[in-house]
Amino acid sequence: MDGHSRLVGWLKVALPLLALAILSTLFLVARTIDPEAAIPYAEVDIAERIREPRMTDPAYAGVTKDGATLTLTADEARPEAEGDGSAVKVHAQLATPDGARTALTAGTARVMSRDSKLLLEGGVLVATSTGYELRTDTLTLGLDRSGAESAGPVEGFGPPGQIRAGAMQIRQAPESPGTYVLVFNNRVTLIYQPH
Length: 195
Hints:
Layout: H1 3-29, H2 39-51, E1 55-56, E2 59-63, E3 69-79, E4 85-95, E5 101-112, E6 117-121, E7 124-128, E8 133-136, E9 139-142, E10 148-150, E11 154-158, E12 161-165, E13 167-172, E14 180-185, E15 189-192
Antiparallel strand pairs: 1-3, 2-3, 3-4, 4-5, 5-6, 5-7, 6-9, 7-8, 8-11, 9-10, 10-13, 11-12, 12-15, 13-14
């Protein structure tokens, strides 16, 4: 028997014993886990979720009767009575069939399922693909058909310049079905700023 064969024979016995010794020290030296330490955090979260149900990072996507797509995301949403709900830090996008897009951001939102409307509140920012950037306090957005309407004054900028108005609407053009327009009314002020 040569030296190589003897070495291999010893290693066949020594290496498994060494591995067994290393594994046993891992279990002997390892810290013990206290299962009670994690429970208070879980109980607080579960109790709070039962008391105040909510969803984090909810998302909604739908198509209106006239073919527009509406997507909606929020940081948090809570259910309310009769299918209604509320959400905070809301981002929405309305894409109408004519290719126009409107991005909406609001501090809070309330779903009014009976009226198929979404009420955006808490400072609403409106940015359209046609170049308008507007701000209003509240805006009602249709969930079943394309359209939006501010409940009060609007101000911002657009391609023609600075705009102030008592109200604003995004609606289908009556003379051109399938085309959507941005309408300002109620004491409209335009400060024209040529480019």
